[in-house]
Design a protein that fits this description.
- The complex is a heterodimer of chains A (430) and B (308).
- Chain A has 430 residues and is an alpha/beta fold.
- Chain A contains eleven helices and 17 strands.
- In chain A, strands 6, 7, 8, 9, 10 and 17 form a six-stranded mixed sheet that branches.
- Chain A starts with a strand and ends with a helix.
- Chain B is elongated, with a radius of gyration of 23 Å.
- Chain B has a six-stranded mixed sheet with strand order 5-4-3-6-7-10, sandwiched between helices.
- Chain B has helices spanning 12-20, 68-74, 108-126, 152-161, 171-175, 201-211, 224-227, 253-273, 287-295; strands at 40-56, 78-86, 90-95, 131-137, 140-147, 183-188, 215-222, 234-237, 245-248, 277-282.
- Chain B has 308 residues and is of the alpha/beta class.
- Helix content of chain B is 31%, strand content 24%.
- Chain B contains nine helices and ten strands.
- The chains are: A alpha/beta (430), B alpha/beta (308).
């Protein structure tokens, strides 16, 4: 048995010692001694607190120590462990738009997924999928993604699904993947000796940013990097033949693809391509679901005719689309569901300048799917050894299955203690 | 109180004490009433060898007392007077109440009071004065009549050795009918007196004694632990009074010391108001020194009438 929060056990031990010490204090009447001049002592209550060499009320003391230790053990969150496994595996799979051959990725992942403890899928956000069904989930995603790519190569309209669908097509973020992997590793900390991290990804330049190195440094061991082929030019060039760009803002009345949110909230960042704007944006609009799938049947004719093919141009930090783009009459139309801040520091930042520059780029501007430099790859991979579990941060404390039983036992003992105390009080009454 | 047999009980400390006070005299504070020839200045004028003054002859004076040489020189008849010397009977009253039986295991306070009594008896005896003993206990009084014979001190030793202090004795009721003359010495802790220390019948009795010309000595016996009780928490009881049970500790110690000090101050004032010589003796003091202090306590009196 191990304890997730052993500090409580130590505190309970100290409290038990305190109870022991208190039982060495007695409030009994001291043994009388004659003093001829006793009459000159001021009259006070004669029961005095005194330290005695003998424990008082031993049964009560035992009950109290048991209560304290049980509560301490419960708060220490004990878990039964029949020995730690030597190694656990976390598999992180790239499902971003940078993956060129989804089926090849599934093949590469199959071996790693066999016996994996935690499986994470990432593009610009990270989701955990059940390890047992991870292979099936990936296969379904690969099938949908392959169909989209085939359509794009054929000159048709790809139909990217919303970001929260397994068949996603957003940019990938290795930083997010590494942070999610570290959190997942923390959950395995108390069960295994070491944790192996496998990342199956395209490892292209668009997937790293300034924080990637810091995020990598948080993982205390080596990373097994499995590189899959990035997307090809044919895929990236889809929709790049339009001339001119038109910008629409939902705040300015261009609401054919946007509906007002029931409860506007504030979001701290929005990302467009490789640009991330950090600002307290007010999110007052949300995309109409018809904007993504004409077959739903709820779209008006106007929407259906005006936006036959849309892709997400910008996303909120939680993955929800913040801007859409499509080609309409040979013009690239970008519709934004947020307002650019009029003033403030954000307008002075380089990211904002890049954002402005990107607004005039043609639709479907392909990201630079250049492979990550070898030195950087070497840095990401790190040493060959898996991460020692002890070096992983402990996961947030949670209740364990033994906790309620221990607390219940402590409660029963507390009731017993109360009864014993009352019985003692009755015995002491004259 | 119980009395032991007549076994001779002069232990090493008693013997050392008697040796230390050998030769000690206890002069009277003022001229004593006339009586047997003794060591103290008498109020009576006589015709002894110690000339003091002349007095004109009065009819009735014995002719043998005339100063014939003066008559021959001056033609006037004078009687030659001299200072008489007399004895001062002394009664030692020692309190054997339960409060003297302290500490309960050693009875150090009682033994100290007993030795003070023996030391004073020895001083009285060396002055050839009759000395009497009264032991005041709960079962009554043990009285040894005034004697000057040899061995009287040892008789006191044997008597006091057989006494076990106990009970609650009222010295006033015990001594109320005492009409003896001379000096009376009370050796006690006076805890049987009223709490205010000034209005007890014993003090009234002492005032009557001093008014009648008796010398009264109040020897207040204190145990060191009464003046500086142990600092640990203790539940103390009064051996003289059932039901007195107080907690003596850190919080009450200062109050105790203040109350006890005030009571002693008022007690001393009461005794002095009654004309008595009041002396405090503490068990930590050597007994011989305490005895010398008591016997010299009346030396400041202008009416002092002894030789020593």
């Amino acid at each position: 048995m191990t304890f997730l929060a052993p500090g409580y056990l130590l505190a309970a031990g100290l409290a038990a010692l305190g109870a022991f010490g208190l039982h060495l204090l007695s409030t009994r009447e001291p043994r009388p001694e004659p003093l001829p001049t006793a009459r000159f002592v001021p009259e006070t209550p004669v029961r005095a607190l005194r330290l005695v060499a003998r424990l008082s009320d031993v049964p009560l003391l035992l009950l109290r120590i048991l209560i304290v230790l049980l509560v301490g053990a419960a708060l220490a969150r004990p878990v039964w462990t029949l020995g730690k496994d030597p190694l656990a595996r976390i598999v992180v799979v790239d499902v971003s738009r940078a993956v060129g051959e989804p089926l090849a990725l599934v093949d590469s992942a199959r071996t790693a997924l066999d016996g994996a403890d935690i499986v994470l899928l990432f593009d610009e956000a990270v989701r955990e999928v059940p390890a047992a069904s991870a292979a099936d989930t990936l296969a379904a995603w690969a099938e949908a993604r392959t169909a989209d790519q085939t359509a794009a190569r054929a000159g048709g309209d790809p139909t990217p699904a919303p970001a929260w669908s397994p068949a996603m097509a957003g940019p990938g973020s290795l930083t997010a993947a590494l942070i999610a992997a570290r959190r997942a590793g923390s959950r395995l900390r108390d069960r295994v000796e070491a944790v192996e991290l496998v990342i199956i990804a395209a490892f292209v330049e668009e997937q790293i940013d300034e924080a990637t190195r810091s995020a990598r440094a948080l993982w205390p061991g080596g990373i097994r990097a499995v590189v899959v082929p990035p997307a090809t030019d044919a895929v990236r060039a889809a929709g790049a033949n339009e001339s001119g760009v038109r910008i629409e803002w939902a705040d300015s009345g261009a609401t054919r693809l946007w509906s007002a949110r029931a409860t506007p909230d504030t979001v701290s960042a929005v990302g467009a391509g490789d640009v991330v704007l950090v600002h307290a944006f007010e999110r007052a609009w949300e995309p109409r679901i018809e904007a993504f799938d004409d077959d739903i049947g709820t779209a008006t004719d106007e929407i259906a005719s005006a936006a036959p093919s849309r892709r997400v141009y910008a996303r909120w930090v939680d993955g929800e689309p913040a801007a859409l783009e499509w080609i309409e009459d040979d013009v690239c139309v970008r519709s934004f569901g947020f307002a650019v801040p009029d003033d403030g520091d954000v307008r002075l930042r380089p990211a904002f300048q890049r954002f402005l520059a990107g607004l005039s780029a043609p639709c479907g501007e392909p990201p630079a799917f250049e492979p990550i430099d070898e030195d950087v790859m070497h840095e990401i991979a790190g040493p060959a050894e898996p991460a020692p579990a002890t070096e992983l941060e402990r996961a947030e404390l949670r209740a364990t299955s033994m906790m309620p039983w221990l607390l219940a036992a402590a409660l029963v003992l507390a009731l017993l203690e109360l009864a014993a105390r009352r019985a003692r009080g009755r015995r002491q009454e004259p | 109180m119980t009395r032991a047999g007549d076994a001779f009980a002069l232990d090493t400390e008693d013997a050392a004490l008697l040796d230390a006070v050998r030769g000690l005299r206890w002069p009277a504070r003022r001229p004593a009433p006339g009586g047997r020839v003794g060591d103290h200045v008498s109020r009576m004028k006589g015709v002894g060898a110690e000339f003091t003054e002349y007095r004109a002859y009065r009819p009735g004076d014995e002719a043998a007392h005339l100063d014939w040489k003066l008559l021959a020189r001056s033609g006037r008849a004078f009687v030659r007077l001299s200072q008489e010397r007399t004895v001062l009977p002394t009664t030692l009253v020692v309190d054997a109440s339960a409060s003297l039986a302290y500490p309960s295991d050693t009875h150090e306070k009682w033994h100290f009071a007993r030795r003070i009594t023996l030391g004073l008896a020895s001083a009285v005896h060396h002055g050839s004065d009759p000395v009497a003993l009264v032991v005041a206990s709960a079962e009554g009084a043990i009285r040894l009549p005034p004697r000057t014979r040899r061995g009287v001190v040892h008789e006191f030793v044997r008597t006091l050795a057989g006494v076990q202090p106990g009970g609650n004795v009222s010295l006033a009721s015990l001594l109320g009918g005492d009409a003896a003359t001379g000096r009376i010495v009370l050796v006690s802790d006076f805890l049987g007196l009223s709490v205010d220390g000034e209005s007890d019948p014993l003090l009234g009795l002492a005032a009557q004694w001093t008014a009648a010309g008796r010398e009264v000595y109040a020897v207040h016996v204190l145990h060191a632990a009464e003046l500086d009780p142990p600092r640990r928490e203790a539940l103390v009881t009064d051996p003289r009074a059932d039901g007195v049970k107080r907690l003596l500790g850190r919080r009450t110690r200062a109050g105790y010391l203040a109350a006890f000090g005030e009571w002693r101050r008022r007690l001393a004032h009461g005794w002095r108001q009654a004309g008595a010589v009041y002396t405090e003796v503490v068990t930590t003091e050597p007994v011989a020194r305490a005895v010398r202090r008591i016997t010299s306590a009346g030396a400041a009196s202008p009416e002092r009438g002894g030789r020593g």
